[in-house]
Amino acid sequence: MLRRQLLHFGAFTLGGLPVSLVQAQGSSQKKLVVVMLRGAVDGLSVVAPYGEREYAASRPQIALPAPGADDGLLRLDSLFGLHPSLAPLKRRWDDGQLAFVHASGSPDPTRSHFDAQDFFESGTPGRKSTPDGWMNRLLTALPGEPAPTRAISLGQTPPRIFAGLASVASLGLGPKALQRRAIDDPRLQAGLARLYAGDAQLGSTLRDTTEARSEMGRSMAGEGGMDAKADAGAPSARSFAADARRLGTLIRKDAHTQLAFTAVGGWDTHVNQGAARGQLANRLASLGEGLDALCTGLGDALADTVIVVASEFGRTLRQNGNGGTDHGRGNVMWLLGGPVAGGQVLGEWPGLDTAALADGRDLAVRTDFRQVLAPVLERHLGLTETALATVFPQAPQTWRYADRLLRA
């Protein structure tokens, strides 16, 4: 029972060792939040290429109307428009805090959700044998001092992206996430410490667990922390927004927190996808509200935070017979935050004519997702080229738009 409690409440990488020997100098002010959209969101609806004739022709029921029309896209430039359900984020674009990289994704051609998510989270497309996730490798490579709450996973299940040797703090979903638990009782902590005194691995995990929960509780005091009464009732339909704001607040208040990850599911729209209204539109509205809430929670810390939103692959250009879209290839990555050189759609756009499509059906991948992430890690978080190579081994050459991604 005690071991199960430790596994449930602890820094969840019990299979590895906590970071305790990283002593490099550096600032911990720069932050990175990764939001993964599990299920393959339709990037051709998120940032729709309304300027391409083939876009509307291939989607007679689900194409978004051009900017200016009823329920039309929000104009980004002469080629691209933002889904109208993401209106809360349009001001971030106008303020130069939001950018997109279109026709991006994994170079591996799989259309399996499981494999594609694994490749994104491991950072090694096409290689299933990688034992750890790229954000865990990043945690060990970051300059600066380690801390129990330096990395936080928001969610109920430990994600592949944080698997590895470094301990990661886990924050559950909902308003009860930081409610005081049995593991916070000093008597139980003392008992566990005695129980695991002879096991360096479990003893270190216990220390990381209790220190992380204590640190998060102090940071969130007055914000629904461990000593606050939990809200009653089931989570609302907008639970992502509440969780995202809570995460942003924790990052802002805890000076040690530098990395965070969360995932949002429900994007596998094979049937009745909809256009400006319907299934996808409703989910995008909740996502947009959540990302805006994350920015609000971050407050002044947004100036030093890059938020990356990505999905495992895109969806087919042509709608299927069920009014939806099937598994595709190229997608769109989002970058949000103060350091982002926003107000632009970056990437090499391949076009939508048949000759340009991957396998004659999908938006082609012209930018490897690691080429987008690498300049964020190097220029924003301060990784050296050597450290970057450990996070993304065998990554492709530098992306030619890298210099335009972040502010100087």
Automatic annotation (TrEMBL):
InterPro entries: DUF1501. It holds the Pfam family DUF1501. PANTHER family: BLL7424 PROTEIN, DUF1501 DOMAIN-CONTAINING PROTEIN. This is DUF1501 domain-containing protein.
